[in-house]
């Protein structure tokens, strides 16, 4: 119990620090949101000074409140779940923007990470089991090669070849925008169809990490006495491979997996940019460029919560998977 | 095999994972089998003529359907739904009546009378009258945030004297204000806007007089349908407008090349090769020069307060190189008179006919010597032991400006001036520009239907930054007097004389150093629609974001077949 209590205290402290940084860091940048907004409007011609005043008033950036008072108000609003109104998409509430985008990010990210993790671990187990075979000697360097390609470049090439030149897949958007969003087959089909290329690039670029870690830990585990013992008992090959060796070898990857799930919320920034895919990463970029404090703060808060939450889950998963941790705790 | 591994972790996750994997694999096969069939929006074969417009580059759409939302107004609201009284063609200065059938100045130029068009209806069926016009202007008075062009400081009242007449009364004569009053004010219905703040209202169901009505909002696309009750319905041949949200210029260009977008507005280098050559019969662009790029110099600082230094910098520039390398030759080198040519040709003082396109290092050297500079051993001019050296700020990621800055740096170096490029983030740039924290920076000069607007916006001492757009801080009584002379008369000869006086000041004093013209970016495809504005028929500025030019363009378009 004391362990758990300590962990929770740690998480609360971490959240407070991230919330505080969220508030101060964006405000250190030069300029203010009203100026940033005016620059967007400038392409339609000059704008009277009155408009800038009005924007500043609307955004509440011309306030005479001290920074500390603003910080207090910000914390108070957060506690009440009030994230405010976005500047760049004024007057849409921040929560609506996040709601619109996070679905895309979560589905694409989760599917891609799960596929990548599952495939990577599975291949890693097989490669370690058949160490020195053709699969092992060929796949390991091939995967390393793939993951060494800078992600944006890989994505651009795939987009250009499959999306633009061959025209097999769409090269932008999350769905065919002439369709209505909803639970109808046309929309779902279109959404899946649009997700294939982005998901493929994420899997291709991340699979090697899972695979190599899994393979290397598995090799160490395979030389353990209990694996020898299991083999000696005459257990089936599959049982030894997965229940005895893989179960122990997967521990480092579980931590990685939990962290990867946590970072999904932050969005697949490059993927979303290259494929013009809707999502939280692109919103974040826009928010930074437009000095949209409320949107920035909210997105960062969600990312922090997701990462910490994932960490917590990883802690729990370890307890379930690794008896040693369990015993230490109860001791 | 796989089941064992995952069931040891937890059966649920495994099942979800595997079913997702198999689902995706199956989908991939299905899609591959479909081949090319599934993409694009050309599937609409039933004679509905849909125009796809790529004017929104950036994030998702916000439901901002009031034409007076101060942050951003959705594409199509201004022009397609809400109209102005008049249309000013910035290419040639011609004025076309829209909601106003006619307008007249009183002899003392203090009263402007509009006669509104008869038989116009709002899209909800209510009649449009002069009272709506008067209401709109008085609404701007009540909500100054909506008055983004700053009209009211110059007006005393706006009244509808009957159903078809609106009288605008000025505090003192100011005829150039007609552009903002007639050409940039969106007339809204009194019965809808009576009790709302136009800058805050969501205006979910916009009611306008324009040729289109708002049909569907989604964060990714805006859809407009033809308004059958439009006062000039016979001229509208387009049935539907789709404005997709496109995330960046590169994607927009790809979409245009695949025919998913008919009308675009973006900058991309080398369009001849990357865009036009792919389909020379249909793919076109026309970069109508509407504004200007200039090198702002901080006139409050040495050495720029010396006119010879400014002239030397100007002489050292190779403007044709700037035009070719930075703007792919889309726009011509700028005239140092501040006139956007050829649009302003009729105002041009013949003395300044030639635009200095090539660098003249000898002249620059001579000018610097006359200012007391001498060349040091490293080839850089210096005065009192201080080298002639300054920094040029540009916005990081605005590639045409970055290229310009690099060319300028090299040009100046050839002439013995040491310039460094300070490539900064956009917000930092605007902060520096608006507050005068710079040596030099590349910036824009906004044009208008006549050359007056550029001079007034950027040189008038009432517009000194940070209040206005006079970022170089040019404060000159002679300039102010000429601007006053122009804006207090309707006599075209007197106006021309004032403009020519301003040209002379610009060319000799160089309040800033014009570089190249700036265009309203405009690309279009004649595959589905014809009748686009172009160089031979410049009836409007082509950029899809130019308002109310978008309205004029839509009235000219005809579907193919």
Automatic annotation (TrEMBL), chain A:
UniProt GO cellular component terms: plasma membrane
InterPro entries from the UniProt entry: MetI-like, MetI-like_sf
A family per Pfam: BPD_transp_1
Subcellular localization: Cell membrane; Membrane
Domain ABC transmembrane type-1: 102-314
PANTHER family in alphabetical order: OLIGOPEPTIDE TRANSPORT SYSTEM PERMEASE PROTEIN (PTHR43376:SF1)
Record-annotated membrane-spanning stretches: 7-25, 102-126, 138-166, 186-213, 249-275, 295-321
Family: Belongs to the binding-protein-dependent transport system permease family.
Keywords: Membrane, Transmembrane, Transmembrane helix, Transport
Membrane topology, record value: Multi-pass membrane protein
Name of the protein: Peptide ABC transporter permease
UniProt keyword annotation of Transport present: yes
GO terms, biological process: transmembrane transport
Keyword Chloroplast: no
Protein origin, superkingdom: Bacteria
Automatic annotation (TrEMBL), chain B:
UniProt superkingdom: Bacteria
Any Pfam family the entry gives: SBP_bac_5
GO molecular function: peptide transmembrane transporter activity
A Gene Ontology biological process term: peptide transport
Domain Solute-binding protein family: 94-455
Organism whose genome encodes this protein: Dictyobacter arantiisoli
Gene Ontology annotations for the cellular component aspect, listed alphabetically: ATP-binding cassette (ABC) transporter complex; periplasmic space
Protein known as: Peptide ABC transporter substrate-binding protein
Gene3D superfamilies in the cross-refs: Dipeptide-binding Protein, Domain 1 (3.90.76.10), Dipeptide-binding Protein, Domain 3 (3.10.105.10), Periplasmic binding protein-like II (3.40.190.10)
PANTHER family found in the cross-reference section: ABC-TYPE DIPEPTIDE_OLIGOPEPTIDE TRANSPORT SYSTEM, PERIPLASMIC COMPONENT (PTHR30290:SF82), PERIPLASMIC BINDING COMPONENT OF ABC TRANSPORTER (PTHR30290)
């Amino acid at each position: 119990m004391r362990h758990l209590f300590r962990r929770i205290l740690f998480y609360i402290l971490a959240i407070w620090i991230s919330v505080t940084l969220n508030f101060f860091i964006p405000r250190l940048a030069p300029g203010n949101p009203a100026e940033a907004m005016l620059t967007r409007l400038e392409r339609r011609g000059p704008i009277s000074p009155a408009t800038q005043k009005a924007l500043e008033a609307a955004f509440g950036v011309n306030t005479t409140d001290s920074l500390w008072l603003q910080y207090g108000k910000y914390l108070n609003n957060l506690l009440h779940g009030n994230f405010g109104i976005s500047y760049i998409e004024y007057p849409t509430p921040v929560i609506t923007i996040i709601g619109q985008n996070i679905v895309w990010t979560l589905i694409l990210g989760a599917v891609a990470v799960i596929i990548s993790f599952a495939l990577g671990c599975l291949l890693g187990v097989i490669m370690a089991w058949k160490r020195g075979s053709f699969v092992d000697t060929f796949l390991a360097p091939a995967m390393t090669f793939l993951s060494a390609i800078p992600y944006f470049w890989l994505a651009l090439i795939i987009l250009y070849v499959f999306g633009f030149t061959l025209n097999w897949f769409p090269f932008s958007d999350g769905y065919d925008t002439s369709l209505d969003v909803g639970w109808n087959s046309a929309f779902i089909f279109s959404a899946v169809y649009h997700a294939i290329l982005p998901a493929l690039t994420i899997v291709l670029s991340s699979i090697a990490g899972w695979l190599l870690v899994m393979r290397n830990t598995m090799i160490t585990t395979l030389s353990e006495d209990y694996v020898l013992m299991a083999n000696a008992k005459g257990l089936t090959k599959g049982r030894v491979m997965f229940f005895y060796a893989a179960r122990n070898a997967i521990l480092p990857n579980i931590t990685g997996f939990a962290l990867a799930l946590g970072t999904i919320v932050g969005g697949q920034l490059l993927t979303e940019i290259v494929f013009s895919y809707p999502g939280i990463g692109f919103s974040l970029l826009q928010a930074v460029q437009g000095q949209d404090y409320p949107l920035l703060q909210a997105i960062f808060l969600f990312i922090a919560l997701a990462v910490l939450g994932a960490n917590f889950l990883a802690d729990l998963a370890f307890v379930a998977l690794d008896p040693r941790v369990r015993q230490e705790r109860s001791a | 095999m796989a089941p064992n591994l995952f069931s040891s972790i937890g059966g649920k996750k495994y099942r979800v994972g595997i079913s997702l994997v198999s689902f995706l694999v199956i989908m991939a096969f299905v899609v591959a089998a479909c081949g090319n069939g599934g993409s694009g929006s050309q599937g609409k074969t039933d004679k509905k003529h849909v125009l796809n417009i790529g004017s929104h580059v950036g994030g998702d759409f916000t439901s901002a359907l009031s034409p007076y939302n101060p942050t951003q107004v959705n594409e199509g609201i201004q022009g397609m739904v809400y109209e102005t009284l008049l249309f000013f063609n910035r290419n040639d200065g011609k004025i076309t009546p829209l909601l106003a059938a006619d307008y007249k100045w009183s002899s003392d130029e203090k009263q402007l009378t509009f006669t509104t068009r008869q038989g116009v209806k709002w899209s909800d069926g209510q009649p449009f009258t002069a009272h709506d016009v008067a209401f709109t202007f008085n609404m701007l008075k009540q909500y100054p945030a909506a008055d983004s062009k700053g009209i009211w400081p110059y007006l005393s009242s706006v009244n509808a004297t009957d159903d078809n007449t609106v009288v605008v009364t000025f505090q003192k004569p100011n005829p150039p204000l007609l552009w903002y009053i007639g050409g940039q004010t969106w007339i809204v219905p009194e019965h809808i806007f009576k009790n709302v703040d136009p800058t805050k209202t969501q205006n979910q169901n916009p009611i306008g007089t324009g040729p289109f009505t708002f049909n569907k909002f989604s964060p990714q696309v805006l859809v407009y349908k033809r308004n059958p009750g439009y006062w000039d319905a016979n001229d509208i041949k387009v049935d539907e407008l789709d404005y997709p949200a496109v995330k960046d210029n590169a994607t927009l260009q790809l979409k245009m090349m695949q025919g998913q977008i008919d009308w675009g507005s973006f900058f991309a280098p080398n369009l001849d090769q990357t865009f036009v050559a792919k389909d020379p019969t249909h793919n076109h662009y026309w970069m109508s020069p509407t504004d200007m790029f200039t090198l702002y110099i901080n006139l409050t600082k040495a050495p720029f307060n010396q006119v010879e230094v400014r002239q030397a910098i100007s002489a050292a520039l190779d403007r044709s190189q700037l035009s070719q390398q930075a703007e792919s030759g889309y726009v011509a080198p700028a005239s140092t008179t501040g006139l956007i040519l050829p649009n302003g040709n009729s105002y041009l003082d013949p003395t300044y006919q030639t635009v200095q396109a090539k660098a003249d290092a000898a002249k620059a050297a001579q000018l610097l010597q006359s200012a007391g500079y001498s060349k040091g051993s490293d080839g850089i001019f210096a005065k009192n032991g201080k080298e002639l050296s300054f920094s040029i700020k540009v916005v990081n990621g605005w590639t045409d400006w970055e290229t310009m800055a690099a060319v300028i740096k090299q040009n100046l170096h050839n002439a013995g001036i040491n310039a460094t490029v300070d490539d900064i983030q956009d917000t930092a740039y605007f902060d520096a520009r608006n507050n005068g924290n710079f040596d030099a920076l590349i910036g824009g000069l906004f044009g208008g239907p006549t050359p007056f607007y550029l001079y007034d916006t950027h040189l008038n001492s009432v517009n000194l930054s940070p209040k206005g757009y006079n970022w170089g801080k040019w404060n000159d009584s002679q300039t102010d007097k000429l601007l006053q002379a122009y804006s207090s008369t309707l006599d075209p000869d007197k106006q021309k004389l004032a403009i020519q006086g301003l040209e002379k000041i610009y060319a000799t004093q160089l309040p800033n150093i014009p570089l190249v013209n700036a265009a309203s970016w405009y690309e279009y495809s004649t595959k589905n629609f014809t009748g686009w504005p172009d160089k031979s028929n410049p009836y409007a500025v082509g950029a899809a974001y130019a308002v109310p030019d978008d309205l004029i363009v839509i009235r000219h378009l005809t579907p193919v077949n």
